[in-house]
Design a protein that fits this description.
The structure is a single chain. By secondary structure, this protein is mostly helical. It contains 4 helices and 2 strands, in the order αββααα. It has a two-stranded antiparallel sheet. A hairpin with a 2-residue loop joins strand 1 and strand 2.
Length: 126
């Protein structure tokens, strides 16, 4: 029973962390140095998504666990790319960093998920 509780707690942590890292990446998408975009959020997307995918698999113990942080992250990016009725837009198409966040984050989750599918099954008792 304790094992199930730890797995559920890990799943909740990973989902919340997926949302929080997505928000942080969106906030950092407009960071500039000397007037130029620097793209730090794209690097954050790669690192955070690798860590979240690994943590999800380790805590939940299932190959499909990579979807736990990926689904809310993708949903957040999709919502951020749609203009509101007031005209607000969090992730503009003319911002190369925004596009890099989406591509880098999506590819990272895809690679991590693919790696989990190809991983050999765990050895019982080993």
């Amino acid at each position: 029973m304790l094992d199930l509780g730890v797995r559920l707690a890990g799943a909740v942590v990973v989902v919340v962390a997926g949302v929080l890292t997505g928000v942080l990446e969106l906030l950092l998408a407009t960071v500039r140095v000397g007037g130029q975009l620097i793209g730090v959020s794209a690097l954050l997307a790669i690192g955070a998504n690798i860590a979240l995918s690994w943590f999800a698999h380790e805590t939940v113990g299932r190959r499909w666990a990579v979807a736990l942080p990926a689904v809310p992250w993708f949903a957040l990016m999709a919502v951020a790319a749609v203009r509101t009725s007031e005209g607000d837009l969090l992730l503009a198409g003319d911002n190369w960093v925004g596009l890099a966040i989406i591509v880098a984050g999506a590819m990272t989750f895809a690679v991590m998920g693919f790696r989990q599918m190809l991983a050999p099954p765990p050895v019982p008792g080993g």
